[in-house]
Amino acid sequence: MIERDGCSVPDAYGDVLLEYAAVREAGAGVIDLSDRGRIRVSGTEAVQFLNGLITNDMKTLAVDTWMPAAFPNVQGRLIASVRVVRLMDEGEGTDKKFCPTFLIDTEAATHARVLKTIERFTLAGDFRVTDVTNATALLSVQGKQAVEIIRKALGDAAATLAPNQVAQFAEVAVLRASHTKEACFDLVVDAVDAASLWETLQSAGARPFGHAALEILRIEAGVPRYGVDMDETNVVTEAALDDAVSYTKGCYVGQEIIARIKYRGHVAKKLSGLLFERGVGVESGATISVAGKEVGKVTSVTYSPHLGRTIALAYLKYDYVAPGTAVTVMIGDEEIAAQVTELPFVPATAPPEQNVYS
User: Please, are residues 174 and 149 in contact by the beta-carbon 8 Å criterion?
Assistant: First the structure.
């Protein structure tokens, strides 16, 4: 176990490379992501309030689907990257008042700030906020055999969910999504039922994997992590979160800045991929240069077993983000050659709509 973002999480269950291979190369793995924050939002004014706070358009989010979004501040800088799930509206088909209901899923590092951002509006209208993190668990099945494992564990209907679709099967809410660019299902369940579901998934063929393997997988997938690859110093669109932004919805906090960047030019820097020719000991924070001029910094780095070389996520000045651009990275007093590459580093086997941007 390790401490990360204030939570104790499983680092590994044994051999990290075997855990990694279960997801990337063959089979599938199951990971406990319950440290992520889960916040339930409901009320007749829920759509209105959320639309004023986040970058994507809640009016277009259908029941039993999800979409990526971001919470920006007034300068358009990133408070949190989230996934918003539209649940069955409370009161639908009854005499109760129609009441849109959402589940916001975010990283552990941004759980408290998301909760604080939305809780302040609970007295402004019919807008109710409940933190359900401790009452629920989030397990995720990742890998090429994820569909078959979910079929064995939860049945054909769960295994055939469409991209971005959400459905309830017995006591388990199933989300079709990916954190690794592989086929994936996220499962939200009452905390008291999590251990039983974990055993069921293992019996169906899923191998447990921890956050050490997930770190390799998410860097290969080009997925930024808050506090490592993005934070409140970044404009939302610098952090490769373009799909989390709607440019056709109405006003929201930070909208003017984000829209101005898109329509009047481009971001000053952007999260990009770096590919090294071999395995090298690059560290986060390493300086990136072109012809002696500093053009960026490394944020995340790992050795990719799939590619057999070191890869990194990095912020580069906009003039240097084109794939194929040759750069050098400082390792101590030595300059190591690298090449800018498109993200993700590995081909996606999950449909693009399933990929989670957090």
Answer: no
Identify the sign of the CA torsion 168, 172, 173, 174.
Answer: negative
Q: Is the pLDDT of residue 93 over 60?
A: no
* Contact status, residue 272 vs residue 319, Cβ threshold 8 Å: no
Contact status, residue 254 vs residue 117, Cβ threshold 8 Å: no
CA 2/CA 308 separation, integer angstroms: 27
Token pair belonging to 257 = 């800045």
User: Of 185, 194, 110, 179, nearest to 151 (Cα)?
Assistant: 185
Q: Report which DSSP code applies to 247.
A: S
Q: Which amino acid is at 10?
A: P
Q: pLDDT per residue over 281-317, tens digit each?
A: 999 999 999 999 999 999 999 999 999 999 999 999 9
- Half-sphere CA count of 272, side-chain side, radius 13 A: 28
What would you report as the CA-atom Rg of the chain, rounded to the nearest whole angstrom?
20
Strands 293-304 and 7-9: unpaired
Sign of CA dihedral 38, 41, 47, 52: negative
Please choose, from the candidates 355, 11, 2, the residue with its C-alpha nearest in 3D space to the C-alpha of residue 213.
11
- 338 has a pLDDT exceeding 90: yes
Q: At what angle do helices 16-24 and 211-220 cross, to 10 degrees?
A: 40
Q: For the whole model, what pTM was predicted?
A: 0.93
As beta bridge partners, residue 32 has: 139
CB atoms within 10 A of CB 11: 16
Q: Which two tokens stand for residue 66?
A: 């999800």
From CA 65, how far away is CA 86, in angstroms rounded? Answer: 6
Please state whether beta strands 65-72 and 29-32 pair in parallel, antiparallel, or not at all (unpaired): unpaired
Are 290 and 326 a contacting pair, CB within 8 Å?
A: yes
DSSP string of 199-214?
Answer: HHHHHTTPEE--HHHH
Q: Which residue has the tokens 């008291």?
A: 192
Sign, Cα dihedral of 219, 224, 226, 230: positive
Spatial contact of 351 and 173, defined as CB atoms under 8 Å apart:
no
Tokens of 7: 């939570």
